Amino acid sequence: MYPNFKILPEKNKIDLKARIAESIALEKQRARRKRLRTISWSAAAVLCLGLGITIVLKQEQKEISPIEQFANNNKTSGSSFEKSNQVQLVLSDKEAVNVSDSTTIAYDASGNKISVNNKQIKQKNSLEPQYNTVLVPYGKRAQLSLADGTQVWLNSGSKLIYPTTFDGSSREVFLEGEGIFDVAHNASKPFYVKAANNYSVRVLGTLFNVSCYAKDAKVSTALLRGKVQVSYAKKGLFSSDTLQTILKPGTIASLDKKRETIKTTAQNVEPLFSWRKGYYEFSQEKLPLVLDKLTRYYNVDFVMNKKVSSGETYSGAFKLNDDLDKVVKTLEATTGFEFVYDAETRKITIN
């Protein structure tokens, strides 16, 4: 029921109006406080979210190992070594040493002495980790003996970053391209091969092949002997998923970079290790796969003008010391197709 101002005395009217005005003012003050509380909670939520993002970023940064940080800060342009004619050893002080063919880069147990080109190079002692780099151009291969006794073979167009000595609780190297590792057993110091795209292989003592060329759609690890664990940390600020799989001898793990999935298959992996002995071996492989391997090693492009049967496979071997002309003639004799090589464009057309 609303008050009838006409029948109230003047004094009561003034009194009632004052109380109504006070009530309205109080209600407005409450509304303002409510709005302020809402804004404060919103600001706090945004602040917490910001802090959360900062924490996530810091955690991700902590997960990057020192050798990965070094690799990110010392990226090498492909043209700077892939078009070279010689393998290069880049020392921690940036000095570059050309490595002769069929030479093994060998470190002593201290990591301070390097045997290369029938000479010895001495590196200065340092309290900080020292990282050396081997760059392998197209058409070349390299072999290393690391300070812990691990043997490494690097294929054409590859790059390996490694410490001169393994002083920490683990042994880590960083690979771009393709490498075969025969790891010296040390149960207290697991060995890791790190690669781009948050990919790594953990091993205690084994013989395996890792292929992680930047241009390839997949990263693969093939195990010949021993046992390895393959890991891939999915990309994305809020993604904490890590894919893992353990390989047994005679299996290959393939990471699809685009789909972020790992597939494991069992097959004869022996041919994947043949290049360390100086030849490419193929056993019932389809022609495109054979050409992919030759494309990478000789830095050429194959242009298919001929339709190839999807079910047809090829077996054989190529000596890696053979020049490209001899390889082309071998392909013609094996497939029955005509291969036309243009040396200027480095293209081989298949008719």
UniProtKB/TrEMBL annotation:
Residues 136-229 form the FecR protein domain. Pfam families: FecR (PF04773), FecR_C (PF16344). Keywords: Membrane, Transmembrane, Transmembrane helix. The keyword Hydrolase does not apply. The chain crosses the membrane at residues 38-57. Signal peptide: none annotated. It comes from the Bacteria. Residues 280-350 form the Protein FecR C-terminal domain. One of its GO terms (molecular function) is sigma factor antagonist activity. The keyword Transmembrane applies. This is Anti-FecI sigma factor, FecR. It comes from Flavobacterium johnsoniae (strain ATCC 17061 / DSM 2064 / JCM 8514 / BCRC 14874 / CCUG 350202 / NBRC 14942 / NCIMB 11054 / UW101) (Cytophaga johnsonae).
